[in-house]
């Protein structure tokens, strides 16, 4: 486990030590009893050492002592559990919170690198695994090794010859466990692959059911699934058999050891070297030793899984936020944006997405950005609130390099409406007001009206109080986009960024939206990325990007005259329209 | 959602988490009875399992008896029969051991066979269910029934069937052996076991509330994490980092508090049981010693009792845990059966006599997904054979619904749809759909080779035909530049949207339908690919009755007829010129697309 996780353990090391000590106490109590029983049999019943006269009072006093030891052991066990859980849970909690906090401060690039799915798994199941790891470590590992070592010592101290059996049985069990692990590990991987395959087929067929039906291929798909299903079940069967054989094989080894022990014991008793009670105690010890060994094997599996998870969490904690606060005093707010010889490429890729772009956007201006897919439109927008940093050149907001701002200050000046409208569970109102928690009802409604969202919100069952379901699946793409736009408008920042945020709106709605924005938010600097000519036509200026370069920036009419790339886009979308008119 | 096998999750540890809340089936008995029917086929294996388990229990119950004789013969110094006794012991232990091995094999094969058949039945059902059912249920939910629920059932079978049977047998056998050895010691052992049962129930009861609470908090925490992380761009964009950290921490702390309590209580179960086991050990040792002093039991009997009292308490533990597992499995079985009970799509029906001309008539068709909210109202339309018809209208105007009705993905409420004069409701579904080819906006391709995807409708198409179709759909150039050409396996990310679209067109070519349905792409592909797709579609439509759902009006100016829809009704129809001249809704739509809002 790496240092950055161990830090969180440090606070609780005392609890761990106490827990481990209690565990040792519990095991000692368990180990103490067979010995006492041997004494009861040998001294109490057989009267060995007392010239053959049984000693009932010794039985009674030993019994009392044994009960005391049992109670003590039980108390130790319960306390060990309490301490282990306390520190395990709290440790887990701190790790989880630390990871979450780190993730929240990740840049877009870092989140993309990890993928959000993987981050979610890390914060949920990996934390649980690591928590189990530290708990197993203090509890299971201590317990098993104590049984293994303590039991062996106790057994050997009874009679040295008994150690022969342990020396044969222990390697046998090691061999068995090793064999099973060696055999199952590749099987586990194979099982995972077959599961994935089955899941894929299932997923494809359910989501593509219309195509399956339209081509009348139900039987073919059923056969494909049966195949995947059969392979999965077959592998799972093999894994299950391996696992289910572990314990019986160990039981055979254990029981045969007992037989051998009795055989050996008979000889030793006849020689007068050990007493019958001692032999009985030896049987119990060997059971404890071998059981401990078996448990150890299972614990190691939990441990190895825990270590994998620990590594995955360490990775999160190691990743320092890439985009950090600047230190300069912020200038007055005016809403200007300037790109000064900006070049950008995504980390890990060689092809530049933006090359040497210089462009000034004045306060209150509406700038549209158009270009084919992959021409770098979104990337250009993402540089303004520093979702990414430029590779070369500077981006200036209100005249200052964005890297000199404190992040919170910079972003308070900008309202970005993202390409993918992300909604949170909760009411529609809450979703809009996210950008300005203290907003009044009128402000929310007015933003929603401008965003053309009010008209469908009031038709929802509970109006603004309608609950948005998971991921906003109850709303259409266009509705989600309009909520996201309302959210952006409500922020009342100086600069509004619309990153292809109206793609799902039909053109007349989009046109009305633009009219409303012109009327109510005329002072706001707007930068709009869009695919459709109709969406950008009325902007003050249109920046045309082609393969990461700014080829022109002017109004629609001028571009039609001078810019070939723009005309191409225009033609492909509205071909031959004027001829017919 | 994807699914993880229980076997993978648990690895070598075979016990489920103690105290986790149990989901209850609504009618456990019915589900159980139906589940039993799945075991019908497995009767020979089940009988064998029972036989094997019985043998194994006999071995493990008798062996300690011989151990007690061995100890006695050692204490009394009378060792001549010891060899024989030890031999019997060895044989019994081996018998029991080998039988448990076979039991493991049998249970695993039984559980996998039943789970496999359950999944198979479920899949075969789902693939034939009416689309209304599939559209109404989340795909994750359906998949989870196929995987998690059937896995729950299978793990219960592999764990429990043998355990239950051997548990009961062991209990009876051990009890019998104990009482036959010494009834007094047997009674004493039983009393400590009663104590065990009492303590277990008490602890389980007291922790239930906390586990339930923990489960709820855990769900909430995971929900928050998932939401905030997958929406992290918005969180960053609006500076919501601190707010989400605070709300996450709040839940995380509450979870830790409840979780610690729950775990401390449930964690005390182990030590408590251990203590009670030890107590029973002491009882056997001490009272055994007293009885031995009286001479009523031998020392060997004490040693046998030590084993028996352990043997006796284990099945009680296991059986008490089984109950919860079985309940969960039955609840899952109920969910599976509820799907299996859904009616499938109608089968049978007439077959259209060839050649099919592809004349389609909608006559007074009414349809609603939800009763009372009509989506298609009194819709009538005749599409002549070989014509190209475009459907235009805002989202929700009913364009896609018409397609759903024509393919009989949904059945109409009233009116009729005729194909070549025949009511499609009377046709066999397979035959009807054979005549219709579709190219949908989100292209569905399967994780298989390019070739198999192209020949989807008919897998033994010759390679020449495949190439010809690829050429006609402008996909040949793209395919030949893939690493393995036609044998390249398509994965979800290996092709661009435009390339996928071309393959879907090629697939439709090879199915050679009489009627073609195109849901035109809106997704932004680069201009050249766009042109490619348009040309390929035009190729495909030649000589076929075609229905196009149009998003870009510029692509349908040459349609024979354009149908403008609104709220399930036709509000305008005619060809491009006529409609422009009419200056109605189509004109309006066209002008907005062209001029960007200024009319």
Helix- and strand-based class of chain B?
alpha/beta
CATH architecture of the largest domain in chain A: Up-down Bundle
Average of pLDDT of chain A: 87
Q: Taking Cα atoms only, what radius of gyration of chain B do you get, to the nearest Å?
A: 35 Å
Question: Given this structure, which CATH class of the largest domain in chain A is correct?
Answer: Mainly Alpha
Spell out the helices and strands of chain B N to C.
Answer: HHHHHHHHHHHEEEHEEHEHHHHEHEEEHH
Explain what you see.
- The complex is a heterodimer of chains A (581) and B (599).
- Helix content of chain A is 64%, strand content 10%.
- The longest helix of chain A is centred in the middle third of the chain and has 54 residues.
- Chain A starts with a helix and ends with a helix.
- Chain A has 2 domains: 315 residues, ABC transporter type 1, transmembrane domain (ABC transporter transmembrane region fold); 145 residues, P-loop containing nucleotide triphosphate hydrolases (Rossmann fold, 3-Layer(aba) Sandwich), CATH 3.40.50.300.
- With 581 residues, chain A is an alpha/beta fold.
- In chain A, strand 9, helix 16 and strand 10 form a beta-alpha-beta unit.
- The C terminus of chain A is likely disordered.
- Chain B has 599 residues and is of the alpha/beta class.
- Chain B has a domain of 325 residues: ABC transporter transmembrane region fold (Up-down Bundle).
- In chain B, 62% of the residues lie in helices and 10% in strands.
- Chain B contains 20 helices and 10 strands.
- In chain B, the strands form 2 sheets. Chain B has a 6-stranded mixed β-sheet with strand order 6-7-8-3-9-10, sandwiched between helices. Chain B has a 4-stranded antiparallel β-sheet with strand order 2-1-4-5, with helices on one face.
- Chain B is elongated.
- The model of chain B has no long low-confidence stretch (mean pLDDT 84).
- Classes of the chains: A alpha/beta (581), B alpha/beta (599).
- The interface between A and B is large, with 174 and 152 residues.
């Amino acid at each position: 486990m790496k240092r950055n996780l161990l830090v969180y353990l440090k606070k609780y090391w005392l609890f761990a030590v106490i827990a481990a000590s209690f565990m040792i106490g519990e095991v000692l109590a368990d180990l103490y009893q067979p010995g006492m029983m041997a004494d009861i049999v040998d001294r109490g019943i057989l009267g060995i050492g007392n010239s053959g006269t049984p000693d009932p009072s010794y039985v009674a006093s030993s019994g009392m002592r044994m009960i005391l030891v049992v109670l003590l052991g039980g108390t130790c066990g319960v306390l060990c559990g309490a301490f282990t859980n306390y520190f395990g849970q709290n440790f887990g909690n701190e790790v989880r919170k630390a990871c979450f906090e780190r993730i929240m401060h990740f840049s877009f690039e870092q989140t993309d690198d990890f993928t959000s799915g993987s981050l979610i798994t890390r914060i949920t199941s990996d934390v649980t695994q690591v928590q189990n790891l530290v708990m197993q470590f203090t509890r299971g590992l201590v317990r098993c090794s104590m049984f293994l070592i303590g039991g062996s010592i106790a057994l050997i101290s009874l009679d040295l010859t008994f150690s022969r059996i342990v020396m044969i049985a222990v390697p046998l069990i090691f061999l068995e466990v090793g064999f099973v692990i060696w055999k199952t590990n590749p099987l586990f991987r194979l099982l995972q692959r077959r599961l994935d395959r089955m899941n894929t087929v299932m997923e494809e067929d359910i989501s593509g059911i219309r195509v399956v039906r339209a081509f009348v291929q139900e039987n073919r798909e059923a056969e494909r699934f049966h195949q995947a299903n059969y392979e999965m079940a077959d592998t799972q069967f093999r894994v299950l058999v391996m696992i289910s054989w572990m314990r019986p094989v160990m039981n055979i080894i254990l029981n045969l050891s007992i037989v051998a022990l009795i055989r050996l014991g008979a000889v030793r008793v006849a020689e007068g070297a050990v007493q019958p009670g001692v032999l009985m105690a030896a049987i119990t010890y060997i059971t404890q030793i071998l059981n401990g060994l078996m448990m150890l094997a299972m614990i190691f599996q939990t441990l190895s899984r825990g270590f994998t998870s620990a590594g995955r969490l360490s990775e999160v904690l190691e990743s320092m936020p890439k985009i950090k606060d600047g230190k300069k005093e912020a200038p007055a707010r005016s809403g200007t944006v300037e790109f000064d010889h900006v070049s950008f490429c995504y980390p890990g890729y060689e092809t530049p997405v933006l090359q040497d772009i210089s462009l000034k956007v004045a306060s209150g201006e509406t700038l549209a950005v158009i270009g084919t897919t992959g021409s770098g439109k979104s990337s250009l927008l993402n540089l303004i609130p520093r979702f990414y940093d430029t590779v070369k050149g500077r981006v200036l907001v209100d005249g200052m390099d964005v890297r000199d701002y404190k992040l919170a200050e910079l972003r308070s000046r900008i309202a970005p409406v993202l390409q993918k409208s992300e909604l949170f569970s909760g009411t529609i109102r809450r979703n809009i007001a996210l950008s300005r928690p203290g907003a009044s009802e009128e402000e929310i409604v007015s933003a929603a009206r401008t965003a053309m969202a009010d008209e469908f919100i009031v038709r929802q069952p509970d109006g603004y109080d309608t609950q948005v379901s998971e991921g906003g699946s109850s709303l259409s793409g266009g509705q989600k986009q309009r909520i996201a736009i309302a959210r952006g408008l409500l922020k009342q920042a100086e600069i509004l960024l619309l990153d292809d945020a109206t793609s799902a709106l039909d053109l007349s709605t989009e046109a009305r939206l633009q009219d409303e924005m012109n009327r109510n938010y005329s002072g706001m600097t707007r930068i709009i990325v869009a695919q459709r000519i109709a969406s950008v036509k009325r902007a003050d200026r249109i920046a045309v990007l082609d393969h990461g370069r700014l080829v022109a920036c002017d109004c629609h009419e001028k571009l039609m005259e001078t810019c070939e790339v723009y005309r191409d886009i225009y033609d492909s979308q509205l071909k031959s329209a004027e001829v017919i008119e | 959602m994807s699914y993880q096998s229980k076997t993978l999750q648990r690895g070598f540890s075979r016990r489920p988490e103690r105290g986790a809340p149990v989901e209850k089936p609504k009618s456990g008995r019915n589900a159980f009875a139906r589940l039993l029917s799945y075991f019908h086929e497995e009767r020979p294996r089940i009988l064998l399992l029972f036989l094997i388990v019985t043998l194994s229990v006999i071995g493990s119950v008798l062996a300690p008896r011989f151990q007690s004789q061995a100890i006695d013969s050692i204490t009394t110094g009378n060792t001549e029969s010891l060899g024989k006794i030890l031999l019997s012991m060895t044989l019994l232990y081996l018998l029991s051991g080998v039988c448990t091995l076979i039991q493991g094999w049998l249970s695993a094969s039984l559980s996998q066979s039943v789970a496999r058949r359950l999944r198979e039945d479920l899949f075969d059902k789902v693939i034939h269910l009416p689309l209304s059912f599939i559209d109404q249920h989340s795909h994750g939910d359906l998949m989870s029934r196929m995987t998690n629920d059937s896995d729950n059932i299978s793990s219960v079978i592999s764990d429990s069937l043998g355990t239950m049977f051997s548990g009961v047998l062991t209990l009876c056998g051990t009890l019998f052996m104990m009482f036959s050895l010494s009834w007094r010691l047997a009674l004493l052992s039983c009393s400590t076991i009663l104590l065990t049962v009492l303590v277990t129930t008490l602890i389980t009861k007291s922790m239930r509330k906390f586990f339930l609470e923990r489960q709820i908090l855990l769900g909430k925490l995971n929900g928050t994490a998932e939401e905030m992380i997958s929406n992290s761009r918005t969180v960053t964009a609006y500076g919501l980092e601190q707010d989400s950290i605070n709300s996450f921490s709040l839940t995380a702390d509450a979870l830790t508090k409840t979780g610690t309590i729950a775990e401390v209580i449930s964690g005390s179960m182990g030590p408590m049981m251990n203590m009670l086991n030890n107590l029973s050990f002491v009882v056997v040792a001490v009272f055994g010693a007293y009885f031995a002093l009286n001479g009523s039991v031998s020392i060997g009997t004490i040693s046998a009792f030590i084993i028996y009292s352990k043997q006796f308490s284990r099945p009680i533990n296991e059986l008490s845990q089984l109950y919860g597992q079985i309940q969960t499995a039955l609840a899952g079985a109920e969910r599976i059966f509820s799907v299996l009970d859904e009616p499938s799509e109608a089968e049978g029906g007439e077959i259209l006599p060839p050649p099919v001309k592809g004349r389609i008539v909608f006559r007074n068709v009414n349809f609603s997904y939800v009763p009372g909210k009509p989506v298609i109202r009194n819709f009538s339309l005749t599409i002549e054979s070989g014509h190209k018809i475009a459907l235009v209208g805002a989202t929700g105007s009913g364009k896609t619904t018409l397609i759903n009705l024509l393919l009989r993905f949904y059945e109409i409420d009233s009116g009729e749809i005729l194909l070549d004069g025949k009511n499609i409701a009377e046709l066999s579904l397979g035959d009807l759909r054979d005549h219709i080819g579709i190219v949908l906006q989100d292209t569905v391709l399967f994780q298989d080779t390019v070739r198999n995807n192209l020949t989807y409708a008919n897998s033994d198409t010759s390679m020449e035909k495949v190439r010809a179709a690829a050429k006609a759909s402008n996909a040949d150039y793209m395919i030949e530049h893939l690493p393995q050409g036609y044998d390249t396996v398509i994965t979800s990310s290996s092709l661009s949207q435009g390339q996928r679209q071309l393959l879907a067109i090629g697939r439709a070519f090879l199915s050679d339908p009489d009627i073609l349905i195109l849901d035109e792409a809106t997704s932004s592909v680069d201009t050249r690919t766009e042109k490619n797709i348009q040309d390929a579609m035009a190729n495909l439509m030649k000589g076929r009755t075609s229905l196009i759902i149009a998003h870009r009006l510029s692509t349908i100016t040459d349609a024979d007829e354009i149908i403008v829809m609104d709220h399930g009704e036709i509000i305008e129809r005619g060809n491009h010129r006529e409609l422009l001249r009419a200056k109605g809704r189509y004109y309006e739509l066209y002008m907005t697309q062209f001029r960007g809002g200024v009319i």
